[in-house]
Backbone:
């Protein structure tokens, strides 16, 4: 039997199967090609999303049709203009989108963290306050409204939750970034609507050479020079030669490998599930579970051998010695790479997050059977027909007679031309003097209505169909009802219309919960300093506002999206309830101010605390004098009791009167 060198056996095909991360000479062309294939498979969706976006924002004659006369493809707008007509439109989709987004924005919600263990519920309150701080830092309510608008239009949204440096805020913290639907790519073979079968996801970045060196050189001059050589075309001292405008369609012609701006560097971020032979370890002595690379197995064997020797020396039977139990398995894990368009690996690492997944959160609506079908796409056909009908009515009205003057040629007065007659006919108080000839026809003016071909009936039909298909009726849009409509019926119509949007909003809420859960786990992992977090309108205790990262690192929280308690209506209900309890004597002033949402709460609490401190000092002085043998007089003894009673009751008459008036 022929023997081979051990070094020759390390790159066997079986090793390549069990370890898919091995890169060759700093390149990962196979990963780049797979990412490009995932990007290309979404090309039809990008065209679909761009069409929905154009219809939403008014470019509704941009579809391409074949002009048989010119034998070429032209846009519908150009085709109509070539016939000497004006392409008219009445944008109904935009109003529908604004109504749906307004319905979402009218119910402000926020995350609430609940600890799985009831004993850790105080930590749940602490985590909730930190999540509200993260919401405020990232302007999440505005982000969610704009994201939901894009969700209604295209049917796909994506966010990225990470911890890092934000140059715009000059701050290192936990951030959420929106990913445009024309820059993200993912596994299009997914069928699970929870996206658990995703195997690759990523996005394309266009960054300046300065940002490239700051992010990937890691302070190394040699590495910075290598990056400059890779992106030599973007390191020239030339100004950017491409500027986008703010109109729809300005960012639709994207390429996977080449940026539209020659002064920027294209970086492809790819997160892919990889495979590697690893070992599950169960330490029966420590009671812990963990996994290691297969190459580290000899270390476990040495530890077990040392335990066996130690156990034998202590007289423990060998089969009763607690060892580390091991089991080989193929581990599937997420691995991140940042690649150049040439396949160079700029940076790579196994997922650093505790949730062991990628940082992206996506939602595809409805993803039934692995397809996307947005809200806007349902009403595009009705919008097209409405535009056709109003253009047709305009054609008919333009071709109809409107005040045409029929003036017999033999009746033209002497000394006047037909132009003079036309000017005099249209002039205010104009007079045309002529002698009619016997049996001659007199001048007459013709004005006719547009020919009734059913266009108006069809237009009304399409407007009704637009409401029926979208589910957004006049009541939801806030339109005034007819005079004979009952208030209860109008409210019922608004409720029924909102019911049609429940599924859409529920899917977006599930997306937000998954995104916020990843953001919460990032905060648990990377927040290392204690901090005081106080959010305006916060109803939690003062203790929960002191965030301690050591207490929450190993606690499991369940996150849900609930109605915000910082809305004016909720604060009003809370304040009314607290005032009733205060008037009934169930709570004191401090409890009222600590749990209420009054604009003067902090100042009053400071005043009360200051008065309590003064009273405590005065009480302590009197008690010291009493212990020293200086017995106070009767009125002083009575004053001492009053001070003690005020401290115990935590209130005073002036404050009671003030709060009673509120």
Residues:
């Amino acid at each position: 039997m022929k023997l081979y060198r051990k070094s020759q056996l390390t790159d066997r095909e079986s090793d390549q199967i069990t370890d898919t991360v091995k890169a060759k000479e700093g390149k990962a062309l196979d990963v780049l090609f797979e990412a490009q294939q995932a990007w290309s498979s979404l090309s039809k969706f990008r065209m679909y999303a761009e069409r929905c976006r154009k219809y939403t924002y008014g470019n509704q004659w941009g579809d391409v049709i074949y002009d048989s006369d010119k034998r070429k493809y032209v846009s519908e707008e150009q085709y109509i203009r070539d016939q000497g007509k004006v392409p008219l439109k009445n944008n109904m989709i935009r109003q529908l989108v604004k109504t749906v987004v307004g319905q979402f924005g009218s119910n402000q919600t926020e995350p609430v963290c609940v600890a799985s263990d009831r004993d850790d519920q105080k930590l749940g309150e602490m985590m909730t306050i930190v999540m509200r701080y993260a919401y405020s830092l990232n302007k999440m309510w505005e982000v969610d409204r704009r994201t939901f608008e894009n969700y209604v239009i295209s049917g796909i949204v994506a966010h990225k939750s990470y911890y890092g440096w934000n140059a715009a805020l000059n701050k290192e913290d936990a951030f959420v970034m929106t990913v445009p639907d024309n820059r993200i790519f993912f596994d299009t073979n997914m069928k699970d609507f929870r996206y658990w079968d995703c195997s690759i996801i990523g996005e394309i970045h266009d960054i300046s050479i300065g940002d490239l060196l700051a992010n990937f050189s890691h302070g190394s001059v040699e590495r910075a020079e290598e990056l400059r050589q890779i992106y030599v075309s973007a390191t020239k001292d030339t100004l950017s030669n491409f500027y986008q405008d703010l109109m729809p369609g300005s960012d639709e012609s994207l390429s996977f490998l080449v940026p539209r701006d020659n002064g920027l560097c294209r970086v492809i971020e790819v997160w892919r599930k990889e495979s590697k032979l690893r070992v599950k370890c169960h330490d029966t002595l420590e009671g812990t579970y963990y996994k290691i690379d297969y190459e580290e197995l000899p270390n476990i064997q040495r530890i077990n051998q040392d335990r066996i020797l130690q156990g034998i020396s202590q007289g423990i039977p060998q089969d009763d010695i607690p060892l580390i139990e091991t089991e080989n398995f193929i581990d599937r894990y997420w691995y991140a790479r940042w690649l150049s368009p040439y396949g160079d690996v700029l940076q790579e690492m196994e997922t650093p997050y505790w949730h062991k997944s990628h940082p992206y959160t996506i939602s595809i609506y409805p993803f039934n059977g692995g397809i996307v079908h947005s809200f806007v796409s349902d009403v595009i056909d009705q919008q097209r027909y409405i535009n056709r009908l109003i253009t047709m009515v305009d054609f008919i009205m333009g071709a109809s007679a409107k005040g045409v003057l029929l003036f017999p040629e033999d009746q033209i007065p002497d000394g006047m031309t037909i132009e003079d007659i036309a000017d005099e006919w249209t002039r205010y108080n104009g007079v045309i003097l002529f002698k009619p000839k016997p049996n001659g026809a007199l001048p007459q003016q013709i004005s006719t209505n547009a020919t009734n071909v059913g266009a108006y009936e069809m237009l009304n039909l399409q407007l009704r169909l637009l409401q029926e298909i979208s589910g957004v009726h006049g009541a939801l849009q806030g339109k005034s009802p007819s005079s004979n409509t009952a208030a209860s019926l109008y409210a019922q119509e608004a409720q029924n219309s909102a019911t049609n949007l429940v599924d859409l909003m529920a899917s977006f809420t599930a997306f937000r919960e998954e995104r916020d859960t990843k953001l919460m786990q990032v905060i648990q992992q990377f927040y290392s300093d204690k901090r005081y977090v106080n959010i305006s309108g916060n109803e939690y205790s003062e203790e929960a506002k002191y965030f301690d990262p050591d207490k929450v690192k190993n606690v499991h929280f369940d996150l849900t999206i609930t109605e915000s308690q910082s809305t004016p209506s909720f604060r009003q209900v809370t304040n009314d309830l607290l005032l009733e309890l205060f008037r009934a004597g169930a709570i004191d002033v401090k409890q009222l101010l600590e749990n209420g949402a009054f604009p003067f709460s902090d100042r009053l609490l400071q005043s009360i605390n200051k008065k309590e401190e003064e009273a405590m000092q005065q009480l302590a002085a009197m008690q010291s004098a009493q212990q020293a043998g200086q017995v106070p007089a009767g009125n002083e003894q009575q004053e001492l009791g009053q001070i003690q009673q005020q401290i115990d009751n935590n209130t005073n008459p002036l404050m009671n009167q003030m709060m009673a008036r509120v």
